[in-house]
Amino acid sequence: QKGNDTLNFAASTNSTYDAGAGTNWITGTGALTSSSVMGGSGGDTLYMTANTGKYYGKGGADSLYVTMTSGSVFGGSSAGDTAAGNDTLGIISQAGGKADMGAGANYISAVGAISGGTISSGSGSDTFATASVFHGQRLGLGDGADSLSFAGAVTGTGTYIGAGAGNDTLSFTSTVSSASIIGGTGNDSIAFTAAAATTTSGVAQGYNYFYEGGTDTLFFTGNTTNTGTVMTFNVLDSLYDSVATEVRTGTGINVVGTSGTSDTTIAYVLGLSQAANVIASEVSSSVIDSVTSLG
After folding, report:
1. What pLDDT sits at residue 92?
2. Number of Cβ within a 10 Å radius of residue 73
3. Residue 290: which residues within 8 A CB-CB, separation 6 or more?
4. Helix residue ranges per DSSP H, the chain
5. What number of other Cβ atoms are within 10 A of residue 157's Cβ?
6. Is 149 exposed, middle or buried (0-12, 13-18, 19+ CB in 10 A)?
7. What is the pTM of this model?
8. Local confidence band at 236 (pLDDT 50, 70, 90 cut-offs)
């Protein structure tokens, strides 16, 4: 129904709560079994412990604050909603479940540990920021000039960060280890501190970067004298006949794609100086699809 409503729910089974139109306030900590909670067409605020239920902001610029162990949270009316609005998602912590914000210029932040589940956002210039550990999580943003900032450690072979199409900006100021990062098509800018290149003992982290198009620039700042492999730079094999690296004394390492007799610099890796720091490799689209799948 219309109006500015307040809804406070506890545990529920086989139920649907629909706040309707208006600027609604919804809060709940109980487990929802086969149940749904829905905002309306206005700018709703939802505070929830998301477990087995489904939670929808629906239309409008909604604000959702969640502790997630399972369940699903949607910024719009469904997964991938193209009319979801410019939503705010505040993650208190996440150990599982799915958060899908839909289209719009969405703002997503995390204050607690992110250790499982998926986060996705559709087309629009999105912002993602966390100072917490990011481990075992899968994050995929859609088309648009997105901004992503990671101040906590990013670790784990199952960890995936995808910025989507557009000229994106990514920043990593702590350890990055074993994770997979993909800038997508567009001219992306990715900045790493020394912690992303080495551990405290100087051991290479060895994570994967996946390239799909554009001219990407990767910056490493601080003490990056590491002589081991810092990253594998994976290029979609349909783009070039072969790929290789070139050490540019005093500058860094260029990644070059070759088609026939023509060479194209597809990425500049600044701040690294050892040939072994970056390994160039070609991978099939099926490999990239498997890496980027959000399940």
Report:
1. 92
2. 26
3. none
4. 285-292
5. 12
6. middle
7. 0.89
8. very high
Q: b/e per residue, 92-127, with b = 16+ CB within 10 A?
A: eebbbbbbbbbbbbbbbbbeebbbbbbbbbbbbbbb
Question: SS3 sequence, 250-272?
Answer: CCEEEEEEEECCEEEEEEEEECC
Tokens representing 132? Answer: 């917490």
Residue found by looking up tokens 């072994």 in the block? 276
DSSP state of 178: S
**8 A C-beta contact, residue 58 and residue 83:** no
Statement: residue 194 has pLDDT above 70 = no
The model's pLDDT over 102-160, given as tens digits with 9 standing for 90+, comes to 999 999 999 998 999 999 999 999 999 999 999 999 999 999 999 999 999 998 888 99
- The three-state secondary structure class of 290 is helix
Burial 259-278 (b: 16+ CB within 10 A, else e): eeeeeeebbbbbbbbbeebb
159 contacts 291 by C-beta, under 8 angstroms: no
Of residues 233 and 220, more confidently modeled: 233
